[in-house]
């Protein structure tokens, strides 16, 4: 090879690579991308009942899953136009950053570091949680303050892991941490006797407890040692998509507050009882178009997926095996802290 | 055909591009520059893309507080230590299980490999069954087997199986007494060093004497007597300055003594047994590569079986064994990253797992982790190559 052809070849290769990489820096918006492919990708957990887990027919169910279906209903008028990608805690942020998924809805705690330094944005909170401890009854423990010296199973790479260390050092107690990759593995570690205590968000403990061979032999201790606001996450820098995901959740919460359900939504649309409902269901104003969607976006969400209260009841609440009380997840009008800005 | 040298154009005459050496040099410089530019471009592109997406970059995170616990730490670590410290902890845990695994796999591998060539039918078939079983089951499955199957069978700490009330076996691992040196124990350590040095010196002397006179000293016995005897004598004379911390049940778990955590035990056993199956085959191939004539010649000189093996067969077999053994050692070290499946805090689980996820600095952390495995592998290769060149056939 002469020097001339070598130069030419490397110049061509360089240009080709530059062109290839150039594409990624000047890409289309997420909404344009998902509109052209007809579906979007939603990152969920590898299996956490109530939040995101496949049921016995292999269909993904759970409160986090329904948020993604609601986005699909708003954007495509089809709640099934979404592909679910199971991710471990350690994979989730990289998958979103790299564009492998478009929404991360995976019981993810909203923290300053995650919101500010990872190039991500939290769109809201679909479940307010707190970290708790699960112990075997025969351990004879009634309070987390009696756990000095215990071996604790925890899922690695979570806020849980950090809260655990803070709680034990704040209470001047010793512990031995055993960190596993997935919540199923940490539950297995707990069940096999490797640990005295399993710690996680208390809703997850309720779910994991159901997976144990003898759920009656264990109990959740009363202490809640942290604030864990869980919510959907999108990539930073695409405000249009960020707004769509954010307002999808707000629409579901507003619908519950207004008493609009999947059953009465047709009737409500045809005869809106008040201007609020008319605006929500696209009978007044152009609130869907402001988001780059059709004006019946919220109608589609509620008709096809349900309002927040319905979704909660069917996935984690009283109509589900988990039977978690609304608690602070009740609407602000019912003594909880679920509150959405008005649609007007 | 010979031509007069004057017919070849001298360097410096004629156009530059006619000079093949110069031309080759230019091509290399251009290619190197293109490669360097390409790398600079990739790095710059990545950094600007990351910045554009608002993702933090750089290595500042290494000084920040980690804030999480780790189940096995060979050096001081608390949740107040830095992320940089978690790197060290993970690295040491990886090295620990790798070294333990390499030692055990080598011993098991040699025993099984030699057994497979045994004239005893039962021993040979058992060794063959071992090799065929363990090298044909995926390593991850074996690790999970040793971890979950064995762990499930062990009792809780309060019902521990105990051995003389000193050793305890339970689902939290193996608890053993640990030595606590008191002041004055240094003397024993010095005595041990002196004994080892004396033994080495004596071994050199014995070897020279054997070459000169043909008489051998029973070095194994003498050496063992010196290395055990001298420190023991000093230890007793200086008033036994050593205390034992015996594990004791307090609260939920044992305190005192040292604990072998089940994650380490499972990973160590699985890595050793799996790699040993491959080493056994390498050993067998090495031994079979030594011509039978060598054994027959040794026997006709009147050498006994085990001396024939030790002095004639194995040294020649090593030339075949060592290069492949290097590969197995590298494999074992890299396979130790499967630790993450059972929660053993190795480099991948702690640093490329938890630390990556807490800081979100994927590119920096994965690059550091890859660099570590590359460095470990190159060092192991280097050492094995040095050893290999020492045992190579000396061509005279």
Automatic annotation (TrEMBL), chain A:
Keywords: Signal, Transport. Residues 1-28 form the signal peptide. It holds the Pfam family SBP_bac_3. Transmembrane segments: none annotated. The keyword Transport applies. InterPro entries: Bact_solute-bind_prot3 (IPR051455), SBP_3_CS (IPR018313), Solute-binding_3/MltF_N (IPR001638). PROSITE patterns: SBP_BACTERIAL_3. This is Amino acid ABC transporter substrate-binding protein. Residues 39-268 form the Solute-binding protein family 3/N-terminal domain. Belongs to the bacterial solute-binding protein 3 family. The keyword Signal applies.
Automatic annotation (TrEMBL), chain B:
Signal peptide: none annotated. CDD domains: TM_PBP2. It holds the Pfam family BPD_transp_1. InterPro entries: AA_ABC_transptr_permease_3TM (IPR010065), ArtM/GltK/GlnP/TcyL/YhdX-like (IPR043429), MetI-like (IPR000515), MetI-like_sf (IPR035906). It is found in: Cell inner membrane; Cell membrane. Its main location: membrane. Residues 91-384 form the ABC transmembrane type-1 domain. The chain crosses the membrane at residues 21-43, 87-114, 126-149, 187-206, 218-238, 258-280, 338-356, 362-387. NCBIfam families: HEQRo_perm_3TM. Belongs to the binding-protein-dependent transport system permease family. HisMQ subfamily. This is Amino acid ABC transporter permease. It comes from Kushneria aurantia. The lineage of its organism: Bacteria, Pseudomonadati, Pseudomonadota, Gammaproteobacteria, Oceanospirillales.
